[in-house]
Design goal:
Blueprint: E1 5-10, E2 13-18, E3 23-27, E4 40-49, E5 52-60, H1 63-84, H2 96-101, E6 108-109, H3 112-127, H4 137-144, H5 154-161, E7 169-172, E8 177-180, H6 193-207, E9 212-217, E10 220-225, E11 246-251, H7 258-261, E12 271-277, E13 281-286, E14 291-294, E15 297-300, E16 303-304, E17 309-310, E18 314-321, H8 324-336, H9 339-349, E19 353-358, E20 363-365, E21 375-377
Antiparallel strand pairs: 1-2, 2-3, 3-11, 4-5, 5-9, 6-8, 7-8, 9-10, 10-13, 11-12, 12-21, 13-18, 14-15, 16-17, 18-19, 19-20
Helix pairs in contact: 1-6, 6-8
Length: 382
């Protein structure tokens, strides 16, 4: 959940601070010397959807015009939130919870956006990485519903692992139905749903003629276009490209727990990296905002399906690529893979960059992120 949100304007710089899974978006935008005097930069916060708060920033000729753009985003995201939830039922809507509730019983007729999400998730599982499996809801469910002072029983986890065959998700596009073959199956799209929804809405906004806009949905950031107001100076961003492009900063992965952070090489309020980007998605995955401690060991919310328990050898992983759904999927996949496996996967993809923040404070990145040009990193390893 969101710990705090601060939005403030100071010295012609808009800084949006969002603490959820550690992504801090800061938009260095100069208000003066605007080539189009009628356009201004506006910012608005949308109430919690997909279990996070959304901060929208963009140029418009009036506040009324900007609010219309925001209303389009909010309306669509509310629709997606209701479709993709596995926790709540809604009158007149067959959503993912409806599918799960009818596992092994009957096929459910659903909205095409559910079918599209499931098909894309299955495609990425088969073609990119099998570490992210939307059919593994039965395992994730045991961890989410565990007793506060215990861990899920190993025998129950092993039993649940028998219910995760992604091939048992039966999609009938002609009839627009989804059926789970096994009664014990559950779909969980937490690693892809928000990214998919953000990408869908971003593309819709582009078709509306919006050319300079930033969507910040927790750890998912989607950039439409670049600055409309070039920045003359560059003292804060450390990057020359931030004069023309938007700058995205990734904050230190801290737990927000004094005892845990005493041994954490990362420091509160500091960046691990900054990126200059346009028409890109920047998505971060980490276990440090949603976790629990049991007998001195930290357990996060990202489940390693091979080990049947929370995994990841990194403090956080950030992915930079065009499509937000793909970035969402890949940030989780890379978080669960070893650095060597993840680096190889990224190289083979060719259209993606990544930043790995190790638990010892070391920062590594892909070769296309050139330090001092479109990217700057700050190692915390002593």
């Amino acid at each position: 959940m969101i710990k705090y949100i601060k939005t403030f304007i100071k010295k012609n710089i808009v800084i949006l601070k969002l603490r959820n899974i550690g992504l801090l978006v800061f938009i260095l935008a100069l208000f003066s010397n605007c080539s189009d005097k009628k356009e201004k930069l506006y910012t608005e916060t949308v109430d919690e959807l997909f279990d996070t708060t959304h901060i929208l920033t963009g140029y418009a000729q009036s506040e009324e015009e900007f609010k219309k753009n925001v209303s389009v985003y909010e309306k669509e995201m509310k629709r997606f939130d209701k479709l993709y939830t596995i926790y709540k039922s809604y009158d007149g809507i067959n959503n993912l919870k409806t599918i799960n509730d009818n596992a092994g019983i009957k096929a459910i007729k659903v909205d095409k956006d559910i079918i599209n999400l499931l098909e894309e998730s299955i495609r990425m599982y088969r073609e990119v990485s099998n570490s992210v499996n939307i059919a593994a809801g039965s395992i994730i469910d045991l961890w989410e519903k565990r007793n506060e002072n215990t861990l899920p029983l190993e025998e129950k986890l092993k039993e649940a692992s028998k219910c995760t065959d992604i091939n048992n998700i039966v999609i009938n596009k002609k009839e627009e139905t989804v059926f789970l073959k096994e009664k014990c199956m559950k779909i969980n799209v937490g690693a892809v749903a928000k990214g998919y929804a953000v990408e869908f809405v971003a593309e819709k906004m582009k078709k509306m003629g919006i050319t300079s806009f930033i969507i910040s949905a927790g750890g998912n950031v989607r950039i439409i276009g670049k600055r409309k107001v070039p920045k003359k100076e560059n003292k804060i961003s450390d990057l020359k490209k931030c004069r023309e492009e938007f700058c995205i900063g990734i904050t230190s992965p801290i737990y927000g727990n004094t005892e845990l952070d005493n041994n954490n090489p990362y420091k509160k309020g500091e960046y691990i990296a900054k990126i200059a980007a346009k028409d890109m998605s920047v998505v971060t995955t980490g276990n440090y905002q949603r976790y629990f401690v049991y007998k001195g060991e930290i357990y996060g919310h990202v489940i390693d399906l091979k080990k049947l328990k929370p995994g990841g050898e990194f403090a956080s992983v950030t992915v930079i690529t065009e499509n937000s759904a793909f970035a969402d999927f890949m940030s989780t996949a890379l978080f669960l893979l070893s650095y060597e496996e993840g680096e190889k996967l990224v190289k083979n993809m060719g259209n993606i960059d990544a930043i790995w923040a190790f638990k010892n404070g070391e920062i590594k990145n892909t070769e296309r992120l050139i330090n001092g040009e479109n990217y700057v990193k700050y190692n915390f390893k002593e």
